Structure to design on (481 residues):
C-alpha cells in the first residue's frame, strides 16, 4: 500500500485514476503522464524526443537506400567498362579452349537438326522490300597497306583485318541441314588454319580467337574459335546462328558456316581483306589518312544500310548491340561490312523493347539502355551517331588523355557545334576538307542520332535518306523536325 501511494503521488493529478478503475486505463494514464514529463534537453517533453528519434531513423534508412541505389548505378557503369575485354595471351586462350564444357541442349539440338531428313522452318524471314539487289563488284584497285594497330575485343573477338570474303562453293564441305551455310569438320578448319597456329591469328578478345584460313579451293575464310567462358561459347554461337545465319546483305559480314565438334564451337565467316575502321581511324596511317571525306561518307552510308536491313528488313528485327569502329570491316573498295553479332538480340514485332543485361562498349552505349537495361533498335541508332562523330573527327568516343572538356566526344562535339566551330572538329589527317554544308549535314544527322530522348532519334532508313539527300531537301527536313 505504501508503494502504491508513492506511485500515485508521482503521477500527475489529471492522470490519477479512481479506485477500482480498470488496470488498462490506469496503465494508459500512467504512460501518458510519463511521456508528458519534461526532459533536461531544452525542456522538451519526452514524447517530442521520441518523435524526433523516429524521424531521424526514417531519414537514415532513406539515406542508406539512396546510397545503395547510387552504388548499384555506378556498378552498372563499371560493368560497361568491364565489357571492354582485354586481349588475352593467345596460348592461355588456347589452353582454355581445350577444357570447354559439354554441349548445351541448344547446341545438341543444332547437331540433331543436321541429321534430320527435312530442314526446320527458317528462323529469320527476309523482307524483300528492303533487300538490296546484288551488283557486280568494281575492278579491285591497288592493295592498301593496313595500319599496324591491334585493338582489344569487346563483346566478341576483335579482328585485325578480318572477317571473310568468299566466292563459290567448290571444295566446301557438305551443306548443312540447317538450311544455310556449311557444316565444317574440325579437321577441315585445322587444315585451313595450319593447325590453329599463332601465325594465323588476326584478332583475339574476351570471347575467343579469330584465325585467317584458306580452304582447298583457295577461298579465304576467317575462323572464330569461341572461348567457352562460363558457357559464353554456346551463347554466342546460338546468337550468331539465329541472328545472321540466313542473312545476305552486301553491308553485313556473311556467316558461311560453323563447326560443332567435341568441345569446339567455331564460326566461319567470309574474309574481308582491308582491316577494320578502328585501325584506319586510330592506327598508324601516317600524316595523311587514306580515308578521304568521300570514303568516310561511303562508310557511313554502308554501315547505315546494313543496320537498316537488320532493323527494318527482317522479322524478327536484329538489334546489334555493339556498333563500334572495330566492328566495321572494310574491303579494298572501302565498302563497310557490319560484323560481330555475338551480343545481338532478336526483337519481335509485338515487342517494343527487351530487357537484358547491359552489354556493349563504353562510350557507344545509349544512356537509356545503360540505366534501365531496356533495349531496342534506337540503342543501335545512338551507337551509330557516336560512330559518325568518330569518323568525322578521328577521335575516340572516350579519351582520357584529352583536356577535361574534350574527354567525352558527344558532349565536346555538341559544344563545338553550339559555338559555331563545326569546321574545327574535322580529323586533322584529312587532306581535303568537305564543304561547310556537307559537314553540317553529317553533324546534324549525328546529333539527331544521339538525342537523349530515344523516341526522337530517327530510324536507320531515315538516316540513309538524310545522308543521301541534297542540301535544299535536307534543310526542309531539318526544319520539319
Amino acid at each position: 500500500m505504501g508503494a502504491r501511494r508513492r506511485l500515485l503521488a508521482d503521477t500527475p493529478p489529471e492522470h490519477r485514476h479512481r479506485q477500482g478503475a480498470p488496470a488498462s486505463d490506469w496503465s494508459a494514464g500512467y504512460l501518458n503522464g510519463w511521456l508528458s514529463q519534461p526532459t533536461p534537453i531544452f525542456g522538451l517533453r519526452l514524447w517530442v524526443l521520441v518523435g524526433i528519434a523516429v524521424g531521424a531513423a526514417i531519414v537514415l534508412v532513406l539515406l542508406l537506400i539512396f546510397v545503395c541505389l547510387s552504388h548499384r548505378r555506378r556498378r552498372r557503369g563499371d560493368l560497361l567498362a568491364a565489357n571492354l575485354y582485354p586481349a588475352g595471351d593467345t596460348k592461355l586462350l588456347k589452353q582454355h579452349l581445350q577444357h570447354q564444357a559439354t554441349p548445351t541442349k541448344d547446341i545438341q539440338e543444332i547437331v540433331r537438326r543436321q541429321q534430320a531428313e527435312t530442314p526446320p522452318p527458317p528462323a529469320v524471314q527476309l523482307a524483300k522490300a528492303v533487300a538490296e539487289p546484288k551488283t557486280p563488284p568494281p575492278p579491285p584497285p591497288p592493295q592498301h597497306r593496313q595500319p599496324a594497330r591491334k585493338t582489344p575485343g569487346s563483346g566478341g573477338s576483335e579482328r585485325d583485318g578480318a572477317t571473310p570474303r568468299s566466292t563459290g562453293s567448290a571444295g566446301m564441305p557438305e551443306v548443312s541441314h540447317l538450311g544455310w551455310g556449311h557444316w565444317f569438320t574440325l579437321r577441315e578448319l585445322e587444315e585451313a588454319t595450319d593447325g590453329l597456329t599463332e601465325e594465323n591469328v588476326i584478332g583475339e578478345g574476351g570471347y575467343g580467337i579469330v584465325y585467317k584460313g584458306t580452304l582447298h579451293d583457295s577461298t579465304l575464310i576467317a575462323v572464330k574459335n569461341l572461348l567457352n567462358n562460363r558457357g559464353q561459347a554456346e551463347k554466342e554461337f546460338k546468337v550468331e546462328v539465329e541472328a545472321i545465319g540466313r542473312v545476305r546483305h552486301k553491308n553485313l559480314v556473311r556467316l558461311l558456316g560453323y563447326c560443332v565438334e567435341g568441345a569446339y564451337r567455331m564460326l566461319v565467316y567470309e574474309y574481308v581483306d582491308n582491316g577494320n575502321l578502328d585501325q584506319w581511324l586510330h592506327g598508324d596511317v601516317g600524316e595523311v589518312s587514306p580515308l578521304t571525306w568521300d570514303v568516310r561518307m561511303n562508310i557511313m552510308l554502308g554501315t547505315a544500310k546494313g543496320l537498316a536491313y537488320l532493323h527494318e528488313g527482317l522479322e524478327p528485327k536484329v538489334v546489334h548491340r555493339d556498333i563500334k569502329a572495330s566492328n566495321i570491316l572494310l574491303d579494298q573498295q572501302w565498302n563497310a561490312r557490319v560484323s560481330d553479332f555475338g551480343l545481338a538480340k532478336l526483337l519481335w514485332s509485338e515487342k517494343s523493347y527487351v530487357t537484358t543485361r547491359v552489354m556493349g562498349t563504353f562510350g557507344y552505349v545509349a544512356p537509356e539502355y545503360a540505366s534501365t537495361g531496356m533495349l531496342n533498335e534506337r540503342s543501335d541508332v545512338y551507337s551509330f551517331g557516336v560512330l559518325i562523330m568518330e569518323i568525322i573527327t578521328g577521335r575516340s568516343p572516350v579519351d582520357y588523355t584529352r583536356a577535361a572538356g574534350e574527354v567525352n566526344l558527344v558532349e565536346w562535339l555538341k559544344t563545338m557545334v553550339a559555338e559555331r566551330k563545326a569546321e574545327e572538329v574535322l580529323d586533322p589527317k584529312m587532306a581535303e576538307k568537305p564543304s561547310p554544308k556537307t559537314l553540317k549535314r553529317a553533324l546534324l544527322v549525328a546529333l539527331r542520332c544521339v538525342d537523349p530522348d530515344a523516341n526522337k532519334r530517327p530510324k536507320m532508313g531515315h538516316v540513309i535518306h538524310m545522308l543521301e539527300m541534297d542540301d535544299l531537301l535536307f534543310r526542309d527536313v531539318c526544319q520539319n523536325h
